[in-house]
């Protein structure tokens, strides 16, 4: 394998993902993604295990095939980690907040999404308590 410009992340200017032109192709091999994003191959493989939004398809030869949306997500992750100084878990949370959760394209959200987060539960409990108090006042 040849030494490409993706070996040095510092070669890319800050905020470079805004200026990156992604070729109009259906699939990209990992080396092409490396050149486009400025992220090393081993880092891409690691990010796949950490970020559920990264799920490249596999060719019959088991080679990773990234879609354009995967490349865009890699650029977002790179910006969060390098330019904005997020940790891996912080970037995961930021991406989840921005996208409404880390779902792979085409996946539907399970019915468990109806459960309210704890801060919403406390708000519901407060409203419930107020309604019960109003009910008691009306019954008097």
Write a concise keyword list for the protein shown above:
140 residues; mainly alpha; Multidrug-efflux Transporter Regulator, Chain: A, Domain 2; two-stranded antiparallel ribbon; 49% helix; disordered N terminus
Q: What does this protein look like?
A:
This protein has a single domain, classed as Multidrug-efflux Transporter Regulator, Chain: A, Domain 2. It is mainly alpha-helical. Residues 1-17 and 102-116 have low confidence and may be disordered. A hairpin with a 5-residue loop joins strand 1 (57-58) and strand 2 (64-65). The protein is elongated. It has helices at 30-37, 41-50, 68-83, 88-99, 118-139; strands at 57-58, 64-65. The protein is built from five helices and two strands. The chain has a two-stranded antiparallel sheet. The protein starts with 29 loop residues before the first helix and ends with a helix.
Compile the SSE list and pairings.
Layout lengths: L29 H8 L3 H10 L6 E2 L5 E2 L2 H16 L4 H12 L18 H22 L1
Antiparallel strand pairs: 1-2
In brief:
The protein is an all-alpha fold. Helix content is 49%, strand content 3%.
Overall number of structural domains: 1
Find the count of extended strands (DSSP E, 2+ residues).
2
Q: C-alpha Rg, in Å?
A: 22 Å
Q: Structural class of the helix and strand makeup?
A: mainly alpha
CATH topology: Multidrug-efflux Transporter Regulator, Chain: A, Domain 2
Helical percentage: 40-55%
CATH architecture verdict: Orthogonal Bundle
Strand order of the largest sheet: 1-2
Mean pLDDT: 77
Q: What is the strand content?
A: under 5%
User: Assembly state here?
Assistant: single chain
Distance between the ends = 82 Å
Would you list the SSEs in sequence order as H and E?
Answer: HHEEHHH
Report the major sheet.
2 strands, antiparallel
Q: What general form does the structure show?
A: elongated
* Count of helix runs: 5
Which stretches are poorly predicted, pLDDT < 50 over at least 5 residues? Answer: 1-17, 102-116
Q: Just give the CATH class.
A: Mainly Alpha
